[in-house]
Amino acid sequence: MENTGYTTLTRQTGLLREMQVVANNIANSATTGFRQEGLIFSEFVRSTGDGPSLSMASADVRNTSMLQGALTQTGGDLDLAIEGGGFFMIETPSGERLTRAGNFALSAEGDLVTNDGFRVLDAGGAPVFIPPDATGLGISPDGTVSADGRPISQIGLVQPVDPIDLIREDGVMFRTEGEVEPIEDGRVLQGFLEGANVDPVGQIARMIEVQRAYEMGQSFLDAENKRILSALDTFTR
């Protein structure tokens, strides 16, 4: 296969990956705390000596959108949304993870947990504990948890130092291979949930664009294959 064929084939692979990402965005457009994703395309060019250079496309880097999702008031004491930047930090069997999904609950032990039972961490990295008999639960914009007017904990908000280090593990949970730092411009809103920051109309339009680009590339590969077969047939006569 010539360089043009390799270039088109790698582009097709990247477009297929982008189609999967866009489809996942659309499927999660109603998921609490979901972050829209995109792919970053790049080109790899290598000299082959005296002949033409080798060029290949790559789409291996996923970019997570940090745009604010819509806030919906629920009135739930343990429904929390982040207004601004930052993530809640949670404790999982695989280590600390980040999330924007704030539909929390209390475990039997009194720990603040996610829907999956993972404990929410405070500003110091310890689990947020709320006494089972606590009444008048309030959570201030800086994450301070109070019961009967007494502060008992503070929910931590953090962000990765380098946003590119953010790696999605499932729909609403992320890990980072780099460092995280406390964030100052984020506010915790009690009784609210943040929806997905997906633009469904824009994503459907992008899906159509990717599909047309893929079909165009496939047409080129089919034409290139016919050209090569025709040339081989001519040379072998």
Structure, explained:
By secondary structure, the protein is α+β, with helices and mostly antiparallel strands. It is built from two helices and 18 strands. The radius of gyration is 24 Å and the shape is elongated. It folds into two domains: 3-65 and 198-235; 71-194, no CATH class. The model has no long low-confidence stretch (mean pLDDT 87). Helix 1 runs antiparallel to helix 2. The chain has helices at 3-27, 200-235, and strands at 37-46, 54-64, 71-73, 80-83, 87-92, 95-99, 105-106, 112-113, 119-120, 138-139, 144-147, 150-154, 157-160, 166-168, 173-176, 180-182, 187-190, 192-194. Strands 5, 6, 9, 13, 14, 15 and 16 form a seven-stranded antiparallel sheet that branches. A three-stranded antiparallel sheet has the order 10-11-12, with no helix packed on it.
